[in-house]
Each structure stands twice: as structure tokens, then as C-alpha cells.
Amino acid sequence: MKRAVALLAVVALLSTAGTGVLVWQLSKDHGPRYPEISAYSHGKTVRVGPYFYCDVVNLDACENPETTGELTVTSRGPVQLAVDPPIADAPWLLLRTYEDAEAPVAQEFRPGVAQAITVPSVDALYGKLTGIVVQLPTLVRDEAGNEFPLPHAEWSVRTIWDPAAEYSESVTDFHPAE
């Protein structure tokens, strides 16, 4: 009789433990809800969720987590940008903002062409990089029948310049000896 009670207690204990593990597995976070981008420079990485994310068919159905990232950069190296596969497998836009540019510098990527790219931290024409924006465009039509792209999702990373890590001269000031 004692043996049966002990066996029953062990079965009950194992069942309780198994149920607890199952509940824990089903309730834990299974990763990001939306695709993310990551930016890397000088040993630091920042992963960023979307600033806004809309239904691709209904641009009025949006969620606005307003997530942004910040990454410290210097003129000594570029920013390595990576996008999650759901972004890379769609047409996407990269907008780079520079301190001396009047408008963002735009670059389009076709589906499946690029999941990671290198972004110079200093542009010879526009100066220091101030931010990176990734957008997923959707083609829309206005009342007049004109078609144009609008973003249905956007991610952004602002760059912060580390003055202690700068060279005494900017990369753009380099002139080779004649």
C-alpha cells in the first residue's frame, strides 16, 4: 500500500512539473512581433523595432510603437546595417540623413538583393551621417488616379558622434600629397 501511494505521489509530482514547463513554454516571449533592423559600429550593436507598422493593404490600420535607436559613430569606420528577412525579401528603401544634405539620400533595394549593407559614416559631399531610416513602401493611388509609393513600415537609427574618438582632421579634409 505504501508503495502504491509513493508511486502515485511521484506521478502527481511529475505531472505537475510537466504542466508547469508546458505553461512556461507557451507563455514565454517568442521573439520580436515585427521585423527589426540592426546597426553596428565600433563594437556596439543596436536592434530596433519599427517606428510604425501598417497593414500593407490598409494604411489606416497602423500600430505606432515609435521605437527608435541610437548608435555612437566616429569618422573612423562605417555603420553596418542589417535588416531581418521579412524586410530584405520585399522592396525596401534606405534613407541616409547627413548634416549638410538638404534632403535624405535615398537608395532602393529589390527583394532578396541585400540583407546587410555598409553605410559610410562620413560622405565627402554631405558630411557626417546623422541618421538611417529603413522603409517598406506600398504603391497607393490618389483620387486623380496617380500612383506613388508611401511607406507602410519604418525603422530609424539616430547617430551620435563621439568627439573623443575623432581624428584631428575629418576624412573629407584629406588631400593626398602631389
Brief rundown of the structure:
With 178 residues, the chain is α+β, with helices and mostly antiparallel strands. 17% of the residues lie in helices and 41% in strands.
Describe the structure.
This protein is of the alpha+beta class and 178 residues long. It has two domains: 1-30; 37-166, Immunoglobulin-like (Sandwich). Helix content is 17%, strand content 41%. It is flat. The mean pLDDT is 86.
Using only CA atoms, what is the Rg?
A: 25 Å
Q: Categorize the overall geometry.
A: flat
Look at the helices and sheets and give the structural class: alpha+beta
**Can you count the beta strands?**
12
Give the uncertain stretches in residue-range form.
Answer: none
Strand-residue fraction?
35-45%
Q: What's the number of domains? A: 2
**N-to-C CA distance:** 100 Å
At the first level of CATH, the class of the largest domain is Mainly Beta
- CATH-defined architecture of the largest domain: Sandwich
Mean pLDDT: 86
What summary fits the major beta sheet? Answer: 8 strands, mixed
- CATH level-3 fold name of the largest domain: Immunoglobulin-like
SSE string, helices as H and strands as E: HEEEEEEHEEEEEE
Helix content: 10-25%
Number of helices: 2
